[in-house]
């Protein structure tokens, strides 16, 4: 009979030499990081210019509709994370779930690429509906009717399939990579999360420097074709590295156990009737009942108590995610209405087709401002991992994960305040009728004569906040969860970040109603008559209030953790 560990997981096929385990563990971790970088390159290739793509002449979605679709996509890519984690835990296992998710990713990204050329749009979306003819507007203040959302079912279906695939990879690849280094020491997981985040941003740099430029200045078909190639390469690398991976079979999901315990504690009368009915139905066949493998009821209760303690901490981080996801939605919309300089000067003698597009020079892609966020992460993660953390650890001054998260929320608050101040300044130029028209692709935007580089501080601040809020958040979710619930807790962490994005989308939709701050009936695709500055300041006030609540809840959690340590630690050590 094989030993228990052999039944639980499959060790790598290539780890046979004495020094093999450490070498192959690092190789397996490197393969996971490479897959993560390629998948993130594809993800940012879709999300970075999604507002511009939907706002273009292909679809004629206005700014609020395009921004709302981007927020829905980003939110769903996090909100659906528990689905992929549950499927992996209960039925597929992490390795198979990741492979199937990459296949779904490949199909959905190909569908999105098909909408980037005319024949593909006709096949999947039909013909563009013609605008109904009507009497001329008698007044310049007459509101214009919003156009129908052309290709909305196809685009939303493709984006939601992409979000499901991305969320499944996010929830499973993170834990799968941590499994590869769990034998390398107690600090290996912390370092893996640092370099995982670094790899994510390497993929973002690849995407923003190359794909975003091609999408804005060449065409979206080639740009989205590159994202399809990144997903295909990631799928090949993952399958090629399978022999050196530690893979674990599905062990069952504790979702039903947690729901039963929640029902038992919240609604005891309903639980009593439910348990009485179940016991009567099972008494007729006592011989067929057999003990089920898995955690005992005592372990389920201990895990449930840990979950009840962790959830309030993660829930109070939701407003931070509302601020964070503005970087890829309303920050982009704001940047399109600032002056974007040309990369190549437009000389009269320069008529080369290679350097000119649609009669104008190449514009710096607005999505390149995300590089300010990315560069901060790429620089600070190695500095933090090799210099800052070891120094603070030797001096016994290393802050806890919760303290870092509170600091990250402060930087997020500062970022959205800076964005609001810039928007106030931009609107002053608009009200004085000091605008410049600029063509981005095939669309004309009426921008303030403020340089887009004024957006750099808000991107830098959100990047610093990411170092202190997101990475320690991953570390907190993975380390504080019981081992039998690590996948579920990681899924909940990503799910709550998606809740933040969807709440931001809902707030944009609410404020876009007639009379709201983001209602712009006379703009038709621009935001020059909106009060986005008030929206930013509202987000800042929400972030500030919940940051104070987070500090209070985190303080209670840390005091409780320093108390009965002997009661909480054993539950996290159970397999």
From TrEMBL:
Membrane-spanning intervals of the chain: 65-87, 99-118, 155-173, 194-215, 221-246, 306-324, 405-422, 490-514, 534-554
Locations listed in the record: Endosome membrane; Lysosome membrane
Annotated membrane topology: Multi-pass membrane protein
Catalytic reactions of this protein: carnosine(out) + n H(+)(out) = carnosine(in) + n H(+)(in); glycylglycylglycine(out) + n H(+)(out) = glycylglycylglycine(in) + n H(+)(in); L-histidine(out) + n H(+)(out) = L-histidine(in) + n H(+)(in); N-acetyl-D-muramoyl-L-alanyl-D-isoglutamine(out) + n H(+)(out) = N-acetyl-D-muramoyl-L-alanyl-D-isoglutamine(in) + n H(+)(in)
Compositional bias of kind Polar residues: 278-291
Chain segments carrying region Disordered: 276-296
GO cellular component, one term: endosome membrane
Alphabetized UniProt keyword annotations: Endosome, Glycoprotein, Immunity, Innate immunity, Lysosome, Membrane, Peptide transport, Protein transport, Symport, Transmembrane, Transmembrane helix, Transport
Main localisation: membrane
One example of a Gene Ontology biological process annotation: peptide transport
Record GO terms (molecular function): symporter activity
Record-stated family: Belongs to the major facilitator superfamily. Proton-dependent oligopeptide transporter (POT/PTR) (TC 2.A.17) family.
Role: Proton-coupled amino-acid transporter that transports free histidine and certain di- and tripeptides, and is involved in innate immune response. Also able to transport carnosine. Involved in the detection of microbial pathogens by toll-like receptors (TLRs) and NOD-like receptors (NLRs), probably by mediating transport of bacterial peptidoglycans across the endolysosomal membrane: catalyzes the transport of certain bacterial peptidoglycans, such as muramyl dipeptide (MDP), the NOD2 ligand.
PANTHER family in the record: OLIGOPEPTIDE TRANSPORTER-RELATED
Protein name, entry field: Solute carrier family 15 member 3
Gene: SLC15A3
């Amino acid at each position: 009979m094989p030993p228990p560990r052999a039944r639980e997981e499959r060790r790598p096929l290539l780890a046979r030499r004495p020094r093999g385990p450490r070498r192959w563990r690092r190789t397996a971790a490197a393969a996971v990081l490479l897959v993560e970088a390629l998948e993130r390159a594809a993800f940012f290739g879709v999300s970075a210019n999604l507002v511009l793509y939907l706002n273009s002449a292909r679809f004629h979605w206005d700014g609020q509709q395009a921004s709302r679709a981007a927020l829905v996509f980003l939110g769903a890519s996090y909100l659906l994370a528990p689905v992929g984690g549950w499927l992996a835990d209960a039925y597929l296992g992490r390795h198979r779930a990741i492979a199937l998710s990459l296949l779904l990713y490949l199909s959905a990204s190909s569908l999105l690429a098909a909408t980037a050329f005319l024949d593909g749009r006709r096949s999947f979306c039909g013909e563009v509906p013609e605008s109904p003819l009507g009497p001329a507007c008698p007044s310049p203040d007459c509101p214009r009717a919003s156009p129908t959302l052309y290709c909305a079912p196809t685009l939303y279906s493709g984006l939601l399939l992409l979000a499901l695939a991305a969320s499944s990879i996010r929830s499973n690849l993170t834990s799968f990579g941590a499994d590869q280094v769990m034998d390398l020491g107690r600090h290996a997981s912390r370092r893996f999360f640092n370099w995982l985040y670094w790899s994510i941003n390497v993929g973002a740099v690849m995407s923003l420097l190359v794909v975003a430029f091609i999408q804005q200045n060449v065409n979206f078909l080639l740009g989205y074709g590159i994202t399809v190639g990144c997903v295909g390469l990631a799928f090949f690398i993952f399958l090629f590295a399978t022999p050196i991976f530690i893979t674990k079979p599905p062990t069952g999901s504790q979702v039903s156990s947690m729901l039963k315990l929640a029902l038992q504690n919240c609604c005891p009368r309903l639980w009593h009737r439910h348990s009485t009915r179940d016991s009567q139905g099972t008494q007729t066949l006592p011989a067929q009942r057999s003990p089920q493998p898995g955690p005992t009821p005592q372990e389920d209760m201990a895990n449930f108590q840990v979950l009840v303690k962790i959830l309030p901490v993660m829930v109070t981080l939701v407003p931070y995610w509302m601020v964070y996801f503005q970087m890829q939605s309303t920050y982009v919309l704001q940047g399109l209405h600032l002056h974007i300089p040309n990369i190549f000067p437009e000389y009269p003698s320069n008529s080369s087709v290679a350097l000119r597009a649609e009669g104008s020079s190449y514009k710096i892609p607005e999505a390149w401002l995300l590089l300010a966020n990315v560069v901060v992460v790429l620089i600070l993660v190695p500095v933090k991992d090799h210099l800052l953390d070891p120094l603070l650890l030797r001096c016994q001054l290393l802050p806890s994960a919760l303290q870092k998260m509170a600091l990250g929320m402060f930087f997020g608050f500062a970022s959205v305040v800076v964005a609001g101040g810039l928007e106030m300044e931009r609107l002053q130029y608009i009200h004085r009728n000091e605008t410049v028209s600029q063509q981005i692709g095939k669309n004309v935007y009426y921008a303030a004569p403020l340089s887009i580089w004024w957006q750099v501080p808000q991107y830098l601040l959100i990047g610093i906040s990411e170092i202190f809020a997101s990475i320690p958040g991953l570390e907190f979710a993975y380390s504080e969860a019981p081992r039998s619930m690590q996948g579920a807790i990681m899924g909940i962490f990503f799910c709550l970040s998606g809740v933040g994005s969807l709440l931001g989308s809902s707030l944009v939709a609410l404020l876009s109603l007639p009379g709201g701050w983001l209602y712009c009936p006379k703009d038709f695709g621009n935001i020059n008559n909106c009060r986005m500055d008030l929206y930013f300041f509202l987000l800042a006030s929400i972030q500030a209030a919940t940051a104070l609540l987070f500090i209070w809840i985190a303080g209670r959690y840390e005091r409780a953790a320093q108390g009965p340590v002997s009661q909480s630690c054993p539950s996290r050590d159970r397999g």
